[in-house]
Design a protein that fits this description.
The structure is a single chain. By secondary structure, this protein is of the alpha/beta class. The chain has two domains: 249 residues, Alpha-Beta Barrel (TIM Barrel), CATH 3.20.20.140; 79 residues, Orthogonal Bundle (uronate isomerase, domain 2, chain A). It is 49% helix and 10% strand. The protein contains 18 helices and eleven strands. The protein is globular, with a radius of gyration of 23 Å. It binds D-fructuronic acid and zinc ion. D-fructuronic acid binds next to loops.
Length: 434
């Protein structure tokens, strides 16, 4: 049982967490604090049980994750057209054979599946998936979610909720969800850049909008946002934007963002999340796996943060080349919160580079990571990798601090890790835990 207090030289009781730790102890303390601190996963594509089959979990979903589909087409002669004709089980079997049996699963995403199987004591060298399928089929989703979040060290999962997705809309119109560990986000892609394809859906729901976003469109979009805020109680509003995004500009996107969405965020007290840098469908044959990355012009972020000082922006950018610039902008605007090593950046080599430069420029005033998980059990490996990659980065920061003359205690490490993975987010959304 660890001592809870130690005698200081002047005999005063000092809680052990306030005890000065030696440089040689720093790495273990950092690792232990990260391992024992539950995180808020601020951006995922997971769903609570109320959403039924929209929520993905189990071995066949893990293997047909679009990250793995992209890797599959590099290690198999199967064409995308042939692949899409297969059933989900046939696709999973094909991916398992090509990426796990015929080749070593050394990529971030393939190794992640191994970590999940291992976490449940399932075979990682099997030629087939029968045993894994039997295991997952035997789980009840409510219990399984509790176990997965406990293994992953997550207290809260923030979802991505699209009010214009017909399947998801039906759940919200039928009463929505109230799982204490799942929180909604109002995702606005179909409004902000999908307006030409989706404005009629709003009109059909009784909002007096038109193709050009003119007339009463702005006030009606604000009414739409207020209605969905009441229904979803979202923690923030969000949009994913292409690498070509510019602001200000004459587009409907720019108009609706500045005249409808950002004023509604201010009125409702919500942050706005901007995820910038996707080059959509560079290879449509791969479907969801067909998106790529492009360097964005972050003067759009500069203009937004400066023009809307009362809005709070959560920003994640997809290009490695934009990361240093984003961290510098965060030094200029305290209404800008950089978050995560998104998508193609969520690999240890890049997470290390990005997190170190953020800490050197921003201290602990940023949010290091989110999982972007689409399949429930992915959070197990995504957060195991985040903790594994961040521990030495934190340890190095404290060792440098100690070498330069500061005292290091577990209490300070715990305060900093809480800020990185909880308080920075809750400062903008309000406390998530009662
Ligand atoms: O826009 C987004 O939320 C992206 O994260 C997704 O579109 C993307 O497919 C993804 O899941 C990346 O991790
Ligand atoms: Zn995402």
């Amino acid at each position: 049982m660890a001592a809870t207090s130690v005698k200081s030289p002047n005999r005063k009781e000092v809680p052990s967490s306030a005890r000065r730790i030696k440089p040689a102890e720093i790495a273990d303390e950092a690792l232990d604090v990260l391992a024992s601190t539950q995180v808020i996963d601020i951006h995922t594509h997971l769903y609570s049980p109320a959403f039924g089959r929209i929520g993905l979990w189990g071995i066949d979903e893990l293997l047909t994750y679009h990250y793995l589909e992209a890797e599959f087409f590099r290690s198999s002669d199967t064409t995308p057209e042939e692949y899409w004709k297969l059933s989900k089980i046939e696709r999973a079997d094909a991916i398992w054979k090509a990426l796990f049996v015929e080749n070593s699963p050394v990529s971030e995403s393939t190794r992640g599946v191994i970590a999940v199987l291992s976490a449940f004591g399932l075979p990682t060298e099997a030629s087939g998936l029968q045993e894994a399928r039997r295991f997952f089929a035997a789980q009840s989703i409510e219990t399984h979610i509790r176990k997965v979040l406990q293994i992953a060290g997550i207290s809260d999962v923030v979802m991505t909720n699209d009010p214009l997705d017909p399947e998801e809309r039906a759940v919200w119109m039928g009463g929505g969800q109230n799982h204490p560990q799942f929180h909604a986000v109002l995702r606005l892609d179909r409004i902000l850049w999908g307006w030409p394809q989706h404005w009629q859906q709003l009109a059909s729901e009784g909002y007096a909008v038109d193709e050009h976003g003119s007339g009463k469109s702005v006030s009606e979009v604000r009414r739409f946002l207020a209605d969905w805020h009441k229904r979803m109680r979202p923690l923030y509003m969000a949009v994913s934007l292409a690498d070509t995004f510019q602001f200000p500009d004459e587009s409907v996107t720019g108009q609706l963002l500045s005249e409808a969405v950002l004023p509604s965020c201010r009125e409702l007290g919500l942050p706005m999340s901007l995820m910038i840098g996707v080059r959509r469908q560079v290879n449509p044959r791969l479907r969801l796996a067909g998106d790529a990355v492009g360097k964005a012009d972050l003067r759009a972020v500069e203009n937004l943060c400066r023009s809307f000082p009362d809005n709070r922006f959560l920003v994640s950018v997809l290009s490695r080349e934009n990361q240093h610039e984003l961290a510098v902008y965060a030094r200029k605007f305290n209404n800008l919160m950089p978050f995560g090593c998104w998508w193609f950046l969520n690999n240890p080599s890049i997470v290390e580079e990005v997190t170190r430069e953020r800490m050197e420029l921003l201290g602990t005033s940023f949010i290091p990571q989110h999982s972007d998980a689409r399949v429930l059990e992915q959070v197990i490996y995504k957060w195991q990798n985040t903790r594994r990659t961040l521990a030495p980065i934190l340890a190095n920061a404290y060792q440098l601090l100690h070498a330069d003359g500061a005292e290091i205690t577990r209490q300070k490490i715990q305060r900093d890790v809480n800020r990185l993975f909880r308080a920075n987010f809750e400062k903008w959304t309000g406390p998530l835990r009662a």
